[in-house]
Each structure stands twice: as C-alpha cells, then as structure tokens.
Amino acid sequence: MSYCPVAGIDVSKRFSDMCILSPDNKIFAQEKIYHDETSINRANALLQKAERLFFSKPVIVMESTSHYHLILFQFFSEHGYDVIVVNPLQSNSMKDFSIRKRKTDRVNAFKLAMMYQTKTLRPSQIPQTATRALRQLCRHRAELLNDVSSYKNRLTALLDQTFPGYDKVFSDVGGVTSCAVLVRFPTPTILLVEEESELVEVIAAASKAGYSFAKKKAGLLISAAQKAQTLGIHSCADETLIVCTIQMLRTLSESVLQIETAIDNLLAQIKEMRNNVSLLQSIPGVGSHSAALLLGEIGDISLFKKPKQLAAYFGL
Question: N or C: which end of the chain has fewer CB within 10 A?
Fold first, then answer.
C-alpha cells in the first residue's frame, strides 16, 4: 500500500472516468471527466481536495488510449501531478485486473488505481513527453519514407515511358547521381543535344566516383537515349513532370534527414533511451532507426519483466 492518494483514469474518446483512492485503498471520489476545460478543472478540484485531506499530492494512473489521453496527461502534468501512462497490454498483471477485457468505465478506473497501490505498476525511467516525441518523430519518418518510395515509383514509371533503358544505367533512379542527371537532362532529346563533356561533369560531381566512372556512365546514357528516340513515348509534359518529381524527392529526402537529426538529438539527451536503443540493436537485423521506432512504440523496455509481456504488447 502506498502512502499517497491515487487516481485511476479510464480514458475513452468522448469522456473519461476518474476514481480517487485514499492511501488505505478506499474510494474517496469518482468523477466523469468530459474533455473540456470546465470538466477537467472540476476533476482537478477533487484531486486538490484529496491532497489537502491526505497531505500528499495524488498520483494519477491512466491508460494509453490512442491520442485521447494526451489532453489529460498534459493538463495534469503541467499542474504538478505525477502521471503514469500504461498500455492495457503492458503486463500480465493487467490481465489479472481484467483491463484487457471489455471496458467497464468506473470499474476500470478503480482497477487502474489499485494497480499502483498494489505495486503492480513499475514507473518508467523515460519521461512520457520524451516517449511521445520519439514516437511522433519515428512515425513521421516512416510516413516520409513511404512518400519517398511512392515518388521513386512515379519517376520510374515516367522513365519507363520516356527513357526506356535508363534504369539499366542507374538502377536507383531516385538516387543522388541519377537525380542530378535528370534535372539537367530530363529527356533523351535534351541529353543528346548537349555536349558529352557536360554530362560527364554532372555525373562526376554528383557521384564523386571519378572521371572514369562518369565517362563510362555517360556513354551508356547516350546509347540508351539514342534508342529511346525510337522506343520511347514522348510528350511535351515529360520535362516538367520529371523535374517536378525529382524536386519532390529531394524535398522529402531532406525532411527525412531533418527528422533523423531530431531523433538523434532526442536520444542524446536521455541516457535511458540510449540504453534501450542499444539493447534493441543487439537483436539481429535491428538498426538504429528501427530500434528508435520500436522504442517509441514500446515506451520503456524495463517495464516488461518477461519476453511474453512484450510479445503481448504487440499482439503476438
């Protein structure tokens, strides 16, 4: 039993149920919290009343329910409460409290509070705000990478029509060197009317692989461009579409780098996060960014006592 009051909050989309327990596990108050300023302030008044009566600020325990818990988490954190956010699948002990079963609102709020009182919960060593930030950054990075892949596919489709054989010269059509070539020579016709020396110079500068490499690639491109004059499907829109697609690719790639820098900076600030990432990287095939993504979803590996608990978290 703890020596402070505890409030369990069962979160749902439209409203949440709060149950405040006294230090001796008796129900002190129950309140339905609608997610508006008036209702949240009323809940805060009850918490303050418990603090005055029991001479200790209540600890708040709430479920991680999509994004719906974030408003309450931010409000109570900013008002000085110790807020613990748990996932319903975080531990087998939650199963004992029936948290994994169908919600029963006030009953679940009581059980959440009891989980803290009976020491079932272990506090995370990583701040909730940091976990949320890492999760947001990693999810946004994943979305951007999907966009990069989508625009590379668009570029490939355009080149298959206008410049057949181009992908045999540059297998990664969205790569740095390929994009540098296409921005300067977006169609076979433009490439063929320019001096070969200009093409070699662009390839050498972008690839940093030397003159011999650039000369060889230029020769292959010229040969492919000559064949494309006959085999390709040409349109007055080709140049614009290819250049615009590459501009989007470059913007997206730059955004990915910015997100990755932000992730690295966040990890550098919090030792526990770095340790968790290092632990995840010990798994074969898990790199630094995959480890960060996993950590953002898990929150804190130390909260899982057994491998089965982690598997349950991911629904395995």
Answer: C
Residues 38 and 107 in one domain: yes
- pLDDT for res 99: 45
Q: What is the CATH number of the domain that holds 32?
A: 3.30.420.140
- Does 188 lie in the same domain as 79? no
pLDDT score of 77: 87
pLDDT at res. 124: 58
More confident residue, 64 or 268: 268
Distance CA 113, CA 117 (A): 6
For 103, the domain range is 6-124
First-to-last C-alpha distance (Å) of the chain: 33
Distance CA 259, CA 249 (A): 15
pTM, full prediction? 0.69
Token pair 């909260």: residue: 303
Q: Please count the structural domains in the chain.
A: 3
Task: Find residue 291's DSSP bridge partners.
Answer: none
193, 227, 221, 194: which is closest to 207 by C-alpha? Answer: 221
User: What is the average per-residue pLDDT within 156-161?
Assistant: 96
Q: What is the DSSP letter of 195?
A: -
Residues 77 and 108 in one domain: yes
8 touches 109 (CB < 8 A): yes
State how far the Cα of 63 lies from the Cα of 210, in Å rounded to an integer: 58
CA–CA distance from 305 to each of 74, 97, 278, 312 (Å)? 28, 17, 18, 12
In a domain, 153, yes or no: no
> Which DSSP category does 179 fall into?
H
Please report whether residue 147 resides in a domain. no
Amino acid making up residue 122: R
Q: Would residue 85 be called left, alpha or beta, if left means φ above 0 and alpha means ψ between -120 and 50 degrees?
A: beta
Residue 94's φ and ψ, nearest 5 degrees, are: -65, -35
3-state secondary structure of 23: coil
84 and 62 share a domain? Answer: yes
Q: At what angle do helices 70-78 and 128-162 cross, to 10 degrees?
A: 140
